[in-house]
Specification:
The protein is α/β, with parallel strands linked by helices. It has a single domain, classed as Spore Coat Polysaccharide Biosynthesis Protein SpsA, Chain A. Helix content is 35%, strand content 16%. Strands 3-2-1-4-6-5-7 form a 7-stranded mixed β-sheet, with helices on both faces. The chain is globular.
């Protein structure tokens, strides 16, 4: 229960770009654990969003073009606050994050303000370049902030609404998730990491190495 005595309202935010293969399945499974779901279509060209129009308790936000994950998350967060959410779950649309693990995040948020999935204890299926990238960025952020950041790049997260209200990201791409960590730590929000499996199948990664590196350098400078 929230402090006002009403039932805690839980909302999921799922940004997506050309995920026609996975999006409907991921959304339906996620709805088993949340009250509402906000699907942010980041300029898809494969009509992914059309699969969701008849699904109850789903709000669809459409970007007129492909702006990036950070931009899409911020739009989803704004809608979540409008819906008077207490806890906001974020996860990817390509089935790399299992909605069935959402209860683990609920448990974690009881004693923290942000819960982030940690995949670095299960690296068997993670491509080598992603392992190196994640370990390096997580280590650099840990040194920058003076707290242990186990997995800086994982988008499977839970936030208390107070975090979303007080922390606004400005970077449009994947780097916004690291930006969120930096700004949240500086505002003394508590971050907890929970182990989750690493899942890489036939999904097409939307993260481009050069852009990701350039974005992370920007984050390290704030």
């Amino acid at each position: 229960m929230s402090s006002s005595g009403r039932k805690t309202r839980i909302v999921a935010v799922i940004p997506f770009y050309n995920e026609k293969k996975f999006i409907l399945n991921v959304v339906k499974r996620t709805l088993n654990y949340v009250d509402f779901l906000i699907a942010v279509d980041d300029g898809s060209t494969d009509n992914s969003a059309e699969l969701l129009t008849a699904v109850e308790n789903v709000f669809i936000i459409r970007n007129e073009k492909n702006y990036g994950k950070g931009y899409s998350l911020q739009r989803g967060f704004e809608k979540a606050i409008e819906l008077n959410s207490d806890i906001i779950i974020t996860l990817d649309a390509d089935d790399q994050h299992k909605p069935e693990l959402i209860p683990i995040f609920f448990e974690g948020i009881k004693e923290s303000d942000i819960v982030i999935g940690n995949r670095l204890n299960d690296l068997k299926t993670m491509p080598l370049h992603r392992r190196l990238s994640n370990k390096i960025t997580s280590s650099l952020l840990s040194k920058k902030l003076g707290v242990e950041i186990k997995d800086s790049q994982c988008g499977f997260r839970a936030y208390r609404s107070e975090v979303i209200k007080k922390v606004k990201t400005v970077f449009p791409g994947f780097e916004a998730e690291s930006e969120m960590i930096v700004k949240a730590v500086r505002k003394n929000f508590r971050i907890k990491f929970v182990d989750i499996p690493t899942i890489y199948g036939d999904q097409e990664s939307k993260m481009k190495s050069f852009q990701a590196i350039k974005g992370f350098i920007k984050v390290m400078m704030i």
